[in-house]
Amino acid sequence: MEISSMFHSIMALSSPLFSSSSSPFSFPTSSRKRPNIHKFKLQSSTSAATKITTDSIPRTEAGEFQNVLTDYVSPNSSNQFPVSRNDRQSAILQIQESSDLGSALPRLGETLKVQDMNVILRYFGKLSRRQELSQVFDWMQQNQKINVASYSSYVKLMGKSLSSVEALVMYKSIKDRSTKINVSVCNALLSCLVKNGKSESSLKLFTQMKRDGLVPDAVTYSTLLAGCAKVKDGYSKALELVQELMSNGLLMDSVTYGSLLSVCASHKECNEAEKYFQKMKAEGQSPNVYHYSSLLNAYSVDGNYEKAEALIEEMRSAGLVLNKVVYTTLLKVYVKGGFFEKSKELLKELEAFGYAKDEMPFCLLMDGLVKSGLLLEAKSVFDEMMGKHVKTDGYSYSIMISAFCRSGLLEDAKKLASEFEEKYDKYDVVILNAMLSAYCRAGEIENVMSMMKKMDDSAISPDWNTFNILIRYFCKEKLYLLAYRTMQDMHRKGHQPEEGLCSSLIYYLGKTDAHSEAFSVYNMLRYSKRTISKSLHEKILHILIAGRLLKDAYVVVKDNAGFISRPAIKRFAVNFMRSGNVNLINDVMKAMHSSGHRIDQELFDMAISRYVSKPEKKELLLQLLEWMSGQGYVIDPSTRNLILKNSHLFGHQLIAESLSKQLVVSKKVKPHKENAR
């Protein structure tokens, strides 16, 4: 289990618009800034625009403050409001309490200002009423009662309920350039993408945002760094972000360091994690529990328990309270290092502190024991956990079911799978995969289908492992077309099948005369942006020849001739000359020649015979003769006589010219051959 990356928690702003006090407005400062509180006074005048003083605000903080001000001060605002404050407050309350927003918003919304609508937006957001929140925001967009704070608040309040696709559509709909590159709006959108597992997309969008004019702040970089923990080459991407942050004159704060430590741990960069941890302390920043737990997590990569224990002592000396995450991460260190006695002692401590009420600590120990071949000890921990009625989400079952399957104890695996079905009415893809694997290995087709139905009924999307389990099972049961359709579905959902599995399925499909399906699987591999085995090209070539799919076979030869043996290419060429598409004969000849394959007289005779039988293809015959002369190829006397005999079909003059060129070539080639002897 991965420890989730920490994101910035941003306090929702509450509107002071209807405060009974006339004292100055006070806005919350960011938790990442210095803790002094700045107050901003609104000085009203009947003849002058509203003025706000920000003299005491640091430059970076003033930038954040500006986004909040858009809720209260609009460049087009006037001190003369057509609707009284009490009437607007009444309208806000009516909308908030309405059971029919579809009618309440058009009826009452027109009397309200943007800041009033933002109050309503936050009201529904704080109550987690996502449907009403979206409805209000859509109305605000349609009626142009929207500003920077509206966009950023909406994205933050929707949280994971807002899909990455919806967030991007919303962002692209923003017409105003200044709003689109506002750092608060951009940060909210990037955070949404990261939280939805679209970290790669967030990095690409960030690049585009900068081109458009975004000036990123420290929050921007911390958000993107958090996402680097979950992407390929995330550590190198994180270093690029840190370098960019510093070159922009920004400083790394505790949140930035925390995100960077998490990236190091996720990508097994233990030494780098230590370096940044010490650098943070050298800069005078005090690590918190999150920083320590991230470094502990880095130590778990190689089970370095001595450094982990020293770090725990340092935490205690610093007066930090060891929480559940810290203890669980230390347990992970012990398990990874194979120190199972220490692990069991620490698990007892976790239970004593009340930190082992769910299955995760037990699962860490069970998984480590299983991977070390200590199946009986793992089962003992599982039984102990069940006896204590520890809350389980099925992960412990999946560990044991998978372990039994790998050890060939299929009856034990089936028994445990049945027990889970009887006791619990909730599933996830991990437990379903474990149960599916148990039934597949036992060859119980009815239970396999039952698990697949449960997955559909529970709206659980199959993952890479699910597809692999099913394809292997269908192949074992000789249901090759079902395995093929499953692989198609796997490919459509963006999962890349492994080459070994594809190669086996290609072989079985070829054996059962499913030649086009075998070629389809080959293409899945071919276009998967990975290097595939050279032997696979020749394997599919033989299958395509057997299925008389000669046009597809030509594509394979043309693209991969260097990886295919000469006998295989010759076999393909002979079959193509006999029955392949006559319009492609010349192309096949040229492709073979380009690959270094010297074309023999037999193939030329077969090709010319095909053309002679189809007089309407005389242009192709003449082109072939012309090409042969240019490449030094000579036709033999019998083929020459065949062409002369049928010259009336192609035009005597044209044939005579072509054959005369052939005669010139033959005279040049003959002395060369004699000299070679």
Automatic annotation (TrEMBL):
Keywords, comma-separated and alphabetical: Repeat
PPR repeats, residue ranges: 182-216, 217-252, 253-287, 288-322, 323-357, 358-392, 393-423, 428-462, 463-497
InterPro entries referenced in this protein's UniProt entry, alphabetically: PPR_rpt, PROP1-like_PPR_dom, TPR-like_helical_dom_sf
Biological processes annotated in GO: mRNA processing
A GO-annotated cellular component: cytoplasm
Signal sequence annotation: none
Keyword Nucleotide-binding part of the UniProt annotation: no
Keyword Repeat: yes
GO molecular function (one): mRNA binding
Highest taxon above the source species: Eukaryota
Pfam entry (one): PPR_long
Spans through the membrane: none
Domain PROP1-like PPR per the UniProt entry, residue ranges: 181-350
Family matches, as Gene3D superfamilies: Tetratricopeptide repeat domain
Family per similarity comment: Belongs to the PPR family. P subfamily.
PANTHER family reported in the protein's UniProt record: PENTATRICOPEPTIDE REPEAT-CONTAINING PROTEIN 4, MITOCHONDRIAL-RELATED, RESPIRATORY COMPLEX I CHAPERONE (CIA84), PUTATIVE (AFU_ORTHOLOGUE AFUA_2G06020)-RELATED
Protein name as catalogued: Pentatricopeptide repeat-containing protein At1g10910, chloroplastic isoform X1
Organism: Nicotiana tabacum (Common tobacco)
